[in-house]
């Protein structure tokens, strides 16, 4: 009868079963944690790569913004300036499916360059003939405010053209990369050609 009173072997077996259960639970939990960690790291890598692509492509204004003016109505008919890529940046496509240009004056805001509208023209004056602004190239950009005047956002006569003593903003948004924003104040219009600073 005494041998049934000694339960040390049973206690050891129960402890071993509990220990094995703890090990299996810990292994399953660690697998879930590691899996989630790998997934998060992969998402972070995707976000960083996308952010680097956005920040790596930008163009800069290369010189003054030259305005062609109407001295009778005291408005700006068009503006011309030059752009090039910033140092070490990747190419920018100027095609109307890859670039959107918006224009704002005190009377309204409108998209003036996309697949449906063409109040902006891009011309490569130093480089090849494709639609890509590449390193070392210089492009002429012309914004035709007379065309903007015909859009529904600017229904009145001379609504689209910036007038003297007004400010306007033109924003160039490529599909990838940072936007180029030009904001200018129009001085007193006394000459047909004026530089806007």
Structure description:
The protein is of the alpha+beta class. The chain folds into 2 domains: about 1-55; about 60-195, Immunoglobulin-like (Sandwich), CATH 2.60.40. The chain contains 3 helices and 12 strands, in the order H-H-E-E-E-E-E-E-E-E-E-H-E-E-E. The strands form 3 sheets. Strands 1, 2, 3, 7, 9 and 12 form a 6-stranded antiparallel sheet that branches. Strands 6-5-10-11 form a 4-stranded antiparallel sheet, with no helix packed on it. A hairpin with a 2-residue loop joins strand 5 (about 100-105) and strand 6. The N and C termini lie far apart (about 105 Å).
What features would you highlight for this structure?
2 domains; alpha+beta; 197 residues
How do you describe this structure in short?
With 197 residues, the chain is an alpha+beta fold. Helix content is 29%, strand content 35%.
Please write out the topology.
Elements: H1 2-5, H2 8-56, E1 59-61, E2 65-70, E3 75-85, E4 92-93, E5 99-105, E6 108-113, E7 120-126, E8 132-133, E9 138-144, H3 145-148, E10 167-174, E11 180-185, E12 193-196
Antiparallel strand pairs: 1-3, 2-3, 2-12, 3-9, 4-8, 5-6, 5-10, 7-9, 10-11
Which overall shape is indicated by the principal axes computed on the Cα atoms?
A: elongated
Helix content: 25-40%
Note the main sheet: 6 strands, antiparallel
CATH fold name of the largest domain: Immunoglobulin-like
Look at the structure and give the CATH class of the largest domain. Answer: Mainly Beta
The stretches of 5 or more residues where confidence is low (pLDDT under 50) are 52-57
Order of helices and strands: HHEEEEEEEEEHEEE
Number of helices: 3
The total of beta strands comes to: 12
In terms of structural class, how would the helical and strand content be classed? alpha+beta
Q: What share of the residues does DSSP label as strand, in percent? A: 35-45%
Provide the gyration radius in Å: 32 Å
Q: Number of folding domains?
A: 2
Mean pLDDT: 83
Amino-to-carboxy terminus distance: 107 Å
Shape-level CATH architecture of the largest domain: Sandwich
